[in-house]
Write a structure and sequence with these properties.
This protein is an alpha+beta fold. It has helices spanning 2-23, 49-58, 95-102, 122-131, 150-157, 181-190, 203-207, and strands at residues 27-30, 33-36, 40-44, 66-75, 78-85, 89-94, 109-114, 167-168, 199-200, 212-217. It contains seven helices and ten strands.
């Protein structure tokens, strides 16, 4: 009887530590922050061109101003970002190479982390994100399954866990209540109507999600 109890206790302990190890995310110290797989990296919005236009119609808080977001993955001590890039479509890149390009124009990169109750969704999200790599960038921002934009990529990665939700998109300048002139011209050039009210998401909306908490800014020397 004692042997049976001892064996059962050992199996329980092994199962407990196995569960911890499989749920734990890989971590790495980078630019003054400890990052982990599943963190989201937000890129500060610029004031002009497409970046400024995105931020003008989506910014929710004065201190939160983002125009791009990607999902971090740490593997064999290398930090990657999985994201839908306007330049390259949906891609997995070494974070250093992305920041060496972006840092020249954009000095603000902010890391957000999923809350404790949402951490279990990360492995599935990474797997899902990797199935979307190779798809082109969605320049219309109208949701479809063949092309993706940055926040759409992240929302889909975590869709099984229902962490993020789609909302009616707006392209109106909140100061005037009229369609932002950039977007009016943008969609005219695409030969389509402004998709006002159609479902979508954006980096500022994701950053405001209740399942995310800000970890800090990446330091640029």
């Amino acid at each position: 009887m004692k042997n049976l109890l001892s064996n059962a206790a050992i199996l329980f302990i092994l199962a407990f530590f196995f569960s911890l190890s499989t749920n734990a995310q890989e971590r790495a110290f980078y630019r003054q922050l400890e990052l982990q797989t599943g963190d989201l990296l937000f890129f500060g919005a610029k004031t002009d061109q497409l970046s400024g236009a995105i931020n003008r119609v989506t910014q929710r808080q004065e201190e939160v101003s983002f125009d791009h977001v990607g999902l971090l993955e740490i593997s064999d001590s290398t930090i990657y970002i999985l994201h839908a890039s306007p330049a390259d479509g949906s891609i997995r890149e070494v974070l250093d190479s992305v920041l060496s390009r972006a840092g020249e124009k954009n000095k603000r990169m902010v890391v957000y982390r999923l809350s404790d109750d949402a951490q279990a969704s990360i492995p599935t999200a990474i797997d899902r994100a990797e199935t979307m790599l190779g798809k082109p960038y969605n320049w219309s921002y109208v949701l479809n399954d063949s092309s993706l934009y940055c926040s759409d990529f992240v929302e889909r990665a975590f869709r099984d866990a229902a962490l993020f939700s789609l909302e009616p998109m707006t392209f109106k300048d909140p100061k005037t209540g009229q369609t932002d002139s950039f977007w009016a011209s943008y969609y005219k050039n695409l030969g389509m109507d402004v998709p006002e009210g159609q479902p979508g998401c954006n980096p500022n909306g994701l950053a405001a999600n209740e399942h995310l908490k800000k970890i800090g800014d990446l330091e640029f020397n």
